[in-house]
Design brief:
The chain is an alpha+beta fold. The protein has 2 domains: 1-60; 67-250, Porin, CATH 2.40.160. Helices cover 23% and strands 58% of the residues. The protein has 1 helix and 9 strands, in the order H-E-E-E-E-E-E-E-E-E. It has one helix at residues 2-59; strands at 67-85, 88-110, 113-129, 137-158, 163-182, 185-205, 210-221, 235-238, 241-250. The chain has an 8-stranded antiparallel barrel. A hairpin with a 2-residue loop joins strand 1 (67-85) and strand 2 (88-110). The longest helix is centred in the N-terminal third of the chain and has 58 residues, at 2-59. The protein is elongated and about 115 Å long. The model is unreliable at 14-19 (pLDDT under 50).
């Protein structure tokens, strides 16, 4: 009898402990459930505001090709230069050199269509030197250095305004200077030639205010009646130029 009572007591003690352990486990589960509910409520409350803030931040970084801009371009210019004195072709050869140009402009948009205008100044020291005497000329040096003008641009934008592709038409003037020796007489000249340019290019926005530009342009030099050198002899200088430019465009107010 004593042993049966002792066993029964041990069983009741174990059951009591198990009941206590189950109660503890249940309480822990209740606390975890409560924490999860609280976290879910916090997320549901704070997430929309965070998304709005993020969206607002994104809006401030939207890309746009509109507005005022400034640029610096490095360029390579190539020409098939030809100079004729009276009826003698003094030289007819390919020539080229590196240069640099600076520009300022403003652009407008209507939907994805882009329109703009810009002014520019460029420098490219393209020099032609006579290699040998071509009767009656014994010495000739011609240089094309400074040019200036204005371009009109028209194109389209894509990729949320990060890409602009355009065509251009421009007018301006380019300075030529040089010296020539004809029949032992030396002459010097310095004239400005009117020019017409046609080209195309693309701007890619790396940041909302900074873009990289790639541009190709062909410049036609108008055959003016003014002679390069002060002489009564007929002269012509064909120096149509093709240039490729790469540089940076800065839109400070974007």
């Amino acid at each position: 009898m004593f042993k049966l009572a002792e066993i029964d007591n041990q069983v009741r003690t174990a059951s009591g402990r198990d009941g206590h352990g189950s109660a503890c486990t249940s309480a822990r589960l209740d606390r975890l459930t409560g924490l999860a509910s609280t976290a879910a409520i916090c997320i549901a409350t704070l997430l929309p505001g965070a998304l709005d803030a993020h969206a607002g931040g994104y809006e401030t970084r939207r890309y746009s090709m509109e507005g005022t801009y400034f640029g610096v371009l490095g360029q390579y210019s190539h020409a098939n230069a030809q100079f004729v004195w009276d009826t003698a072709t003094i030289f007819d050869k390919d020539t080229g050199n590196w240069g640099v140009s600076g520009l300022a402009g403003h652009g407008w948009k209507s939907g994805s269509f882009y329109f703009g205008g810009e002014i520019f100044v460029d420098y490219a020291n393209i020099k032609n030197v006579l290699a040998q005497t071509v009767n009656p000329v014994s010495q000739l040096t011609l240089e094309r250095k400074v040019g200036a003008g204005a371009n009109l641009l028209a194109g389209v934008t894509a990729f949320d305004d990060r890409l602009l592709t355009y065509g251009l038409v421009g007018v301006g003037a380019t300075n030529f200077s040089g010296s020539i020796t004809v029949s032992n007489a030396s002459l010097k000249g310095d004239v400005w030639y009117p020019v017409l340019s046609l080209g195309a290019g693309a701007d890619w926005a790396m940041t909302p205010s900074l873009s990289v530009r790639l541009q190709g342009k062909h410049t036609f030099y108008y055959d003016v009646s003014d002679r390069i050198f002060p002489d009564q002899t007929s002269q012509s200088y064909d120096f149509d130029t093709t240039s490729v430019s790469v540089g940076l465009i800065w839109r400070p107010w974007n």
